[in-house]
Design brief:
Layout lengths: L29 H9 L11 H12 L3 H11 L43 H8 L6 E3 H18 L7 H18 L6 E3 H10 L17 H19 L15 H4 L1
Antiparallel strand pairs: 1-2
Length: about 250
C-alpha cells in the first residue's frame, strides 16, 4: 500500500479546487483534513469560511447543512480574532478548545505533536478492532482504553465531561459517516484506510449516504457508543449530558 496521503484516487469523483501557492496546513481533525485533501474545502487548509465548511461537509459526506453551519461556527472559536469570519485547519491545534486528549490517532498536546497522525497511538487503538466488522462495543473499548492510556502517561490529562463527550463523538463519527447505520458497524478496512490516508475510502467501495446525516442520526449513534462506554466503565460512572450538535466536533473538528 502507498504511504499516507498517496492512495490512488478516482479523480473524476472529487472537486478540482486547485492547491494555492501558500504552504498547505492541516490539523488534528481527520475529517476536515480529508475534505481538504480532496478539494471539498480549500486544499491549502486556510481561510475556511462558512460557505467552504458547509458546502464541503454537505458535498463530501452529505451532512445536513444546518448541522454543518453549526460546526463551522464552533470552528471560529479557535481563531483569536473576535471578528473572524474564517479559520485555518492548523488553528484547530489549540489545546482544549476543540482538540482534546485521548485521541485515537494523535498524541496528547502535553506529550508531543497533537495534530499529526501517530502510528504508535493508532496501533494502540486498532488492536481493539478484532474483526473486519467493527462494532459499537469495539469503538467504545478503544475510547475507554485511550482514556486510560492518557491518564497513565499524561499528568496534565484533561478528561472533564465535555472532553469525554468529544471522545465519544470521535468514536461515533466513523460509524455515522462510513458505516452501516442500521447495524451501527463499520468495516475495519475502511477505518484503517481513512485514518491512515485521510482520504474518503471510495477505493474500498464506500459511497456517501443517500440520506443526509442529521442531528438525530448523530445522536442515535453517539448514544449507542456512550451506553457501551458506560457499560465498560461500570454502573457508577457519572451520566454524561445529552449529546447535541457540539459533540459532533469530536470526530469532525
Amino acid at each position: 500500500m502507498t504511504g499516507p496521503g498517496q492512495g490512488k484516487l478516482h479523480a473524476s469523483l472529487y472537486p478540482t479546487t486547485p492547491l494555492t501557492t501558500t504552504t498547505p496546513v492541516r490539523g488534528p481533525c481527520p475529517m476536515l483534513n480529508t475534505l481538504a485533501n480532496h478539494g471539498y474545502i480549500p486544499r491549502d487548509g486556510r481561510n475556511m469560511t462558512r460557505d467552504h465548511i458547509v458546502s464541503g461537509l454537505v458535498n463530501g459526506i452529505n451532512l445536513e447543512s444546518g448541522l454543518a453551519a453549526v460546526l463551522w461556527q464552533q470552528g471560529l472559536e479557535v481563531n483569536p480574532d473576535p471578528n473572524a469570519v474564517s479559520f485555518t485547519l492548523d488553528q484547530l491545534n489549540a489545546h482544549n478548545v476543540l482538540e482534546h486528549d485521548a485521541s485515537m490517532t494523535r498524541a496528547d498536546a502535553a506529550l508531543g505533536n497533537n495534530h499529526l497522525f501517530n502510528e504508535a497511538i493508532f496501533q494502540s487503538s486498532r488492536r481493539h478492532w478484532t474483526a473486519e466488522t467493527v462494532t459499537v462495543d469495539m469503538m467504545a473499548t478503544t475510547t475507554v482504553q485511550r482514556q486510560i492510556e492518557s491518564k497513565v502517561t499524561n499528568r496534565n490529562c484533561d478528561l472533564s465531561d465535555d472532553k469525554i463527550n468529544s471522545c465519544v463523538g470521535q468514536a461515533s463519527v466513523p460509524i455515522t459517516v462510513f458505516g452501516d447505520l442500521q447495524q451501527a458497524t463499520v468495516r475495519r478496512s475502511v477505518l484503517e484506510y481513512w485514518f491512515r490516508f485521510e482520504r474518503l475510502p471510495t477505493e474500498l467501495g464506500w459511497v456517501k449516504k443517500t440520506d443526509q446525516i442529521t442531528l438525530s442520526t448523530v445522536q442515535r449513534i453517539t448514544g449507542l457508543v456512550e451506553n457501551a462506554v458506560n457499560r465498560l466503565q461500570g454502573a457508577n460512572i457519572k451520566t454524561m449530558r445529552r449529546h447535541g450538535r457540539r459533540d459532533m466536533h469530536g470526530g469532525l473538528f
